[in-house]
Amino acid sequence: MYLNALFTFCLLGAWNPTGSSQAFNRDILQRFQKLQEKHNPFNSEEYSVEALKGKTFINPDKIPGTRRPDGTYCLKKVVEIEETEFDRGMDCHHTFSKEMPSHIHHRLFLKFRREMRHGFQKNCHITFKPVPHNEKIKICHTPLIRQCNDQTQGPEVCTTEYENYCETKYKVYELDQDEPKCQMVEEKFVHQVIAKTLPGEEICKEETRTLVQNVPEEDCDLEPQENCRMESSLVPRLVPKNNCIKVPKEVCVNTKKNPKKVKKPIIKEWCFNPNELEY
To answer: Of 61, 160, 256, 257, which is least surrounded by CB within 10 A?
Structure first.
């Protein structure tokens, strides 16, 4: 059905009436008008492709259009079509999303531990023991001498006089030196008034004495001991830490607004096969 109407329309629009083809074209035009008068001409047997083929002669040299290798002919026609156009745009929405990326954070922690140290304690006791030893002592004293005057008689008088006694001990230091020790010794003299006492010459003598001296002695013991105490130290540790940030996001959607009908010309290619129209 469609091929019949298409072929007829193409022949009417492309052939030029010359000579004997004018009658042919008039005949085709009359048949086409009759088809238009029918309510549904494409369903009629009188005007079908077979009916037209039985009454129509096709000259292959005068067929309009461009011939293709498969034997069909094609014509290009400008046809006006109606399309709907829109104002195209883009709507974007800006939002923020909260993200919590986890980072590894380096921190120092204070750690206590019990430290045990082993050692020894020295306990000492000092005691003094008497030790006898011999020392050489130099003893000197100045005696008092009674001296009488020319008188031969007189009353007796008792007086107290003092003689100087000195003892010198020899001690060894870094430098050798003596250590004298002197004291006054009281003596009583009875003599007449006519006599008096005077210091005489110093008399010295050396003696060896046994002296007792306290010598210190030290007695020490070593006792093992454990010294425990708490010691602190800084220990590094990796700790995860959440860092909350706001990340901007943009969501865009293509939009079509303000629809309107627009007619546009387009080129369509109409093709047919002439063999279907011959006897």
So the answer is: 61
